[in-house]
Design a protein that fits this description.
By secondary structure, the protein is an alpha/beta fold. Helices cover about 45% and strands about 10% of the residues. It has 14 helices and 10 strands. An 8-stranded parallel beta barrel has the order 1-2-3-4-5-6-7-8, surrounded by 9 helices. A two-stranded parallel sheet has the order 9-10. Helix 6 links the parallel strand 5 and strand 6. Helix 5 packs parallel to helix 6 and helix 7 runs parallel beside helix 8. The longest helix has about 35 residues. It is elongated.
Amino acid sequence: MTRHVFLNDTTLRDREQAPGVAFTTTEKLEIAESLAAAGVTEIEIGTPVMGADEIETIRAVVARRLPVRLMAWCRMTSLDLDAAIESGVHAVNLSLPASDIQLAAKLGLDKAGALQVIEHMVRRAAAAGFFVAVGCEDASRANRDHLARVIETAARAGASRVRLADTVGVLDPFSTFELVAQLVAQSPIDLEFHAHNDLGLAAANTLAAIRAGTRHASVTVLGLGERAGNAALEEVAAAMAVLDGADTGIELTALPDLAAQVAWAARRQTAAIKPVACADVFTHESGNHVAGLLKDSRTYQGLDPALVGRCRRIVIGKHSGATAIAHVLSESGRDLDPDLAAAMVARVRREAAETKSTVTATQLVELYDGMCSEASLAELCGSRSAVRERTTTVFRPGRMQ
């Protein structure tokens, strides 16, 4: 039976907390529309308490009537909730620290005081007609018994879901699984996992949380977010489809264009090797790999590029062999002469090393045509030398024939 997993995209909220990122209203509208078109069913669209401009932008997104749940992120205060009411959204994530460290440093509260705040604010939000999720900031460093009481209190007050946030990114997949499995077994309502990528484990931790039983996960496009970012929408969606056969509702072929759109709006360059959506992840140069791929694509592809709207690309460089060179030449209407193969490989490797780059198909054809011309000239010169030698042998000056 196919398992359904729901991805809550928070690109328009957590992504904007990254230094220097400020989406315009138009950009937020366009990104929200693209997320909805890609099959995302819940979008965290902003923080209303930021002020009139943010509220106006949120109201503009709400007015589009997209087929998604639009959620506002709020601190667990009346000020934030009133701003959410003004913004016109129908869902709120009311967030409160869960760890002793953050409760004391940020709010001067103890655990009992935090539970009282949760009880009061969740009841008020539910009475206002909101779908209510409670966010446990720094859940990864919180006392487990306190987390269980937070979930119980939130559920009793009218919350439909609790978010467990690894706010400072200190979990690994094993500790994530243990934490989530324990709380899922005790929880009367849905749980959501929100990962941060400080140790490069956000996507892995998110998969661990899903396997431990949570049906909801926070993601951002390209994993962009504050500090080291969050779990990447495209990575989690593809991994769930390929590794677990789960249904996230995401149209995977839409992910590359969505990633490009967000990167442009954020004015951020992304690494060419970033999984799923970026330039080089389905690009192959190694001679050994290319030889295998041309026989059976499964030899060096665990993820079918077509699944995520991409194509395999073979490039020529320092590590290319004769098979790859012959393949690229054949696509340009050239057949690699077996007698020239070794010399061609050597020339390509020299060219790539000198330029510290790949050799384009056009450059490869030029190199090959030049080599063929040299070979033809050498053959012609060799033939003429042979003729001269025979002529010299037959017609030696001063000797009668």
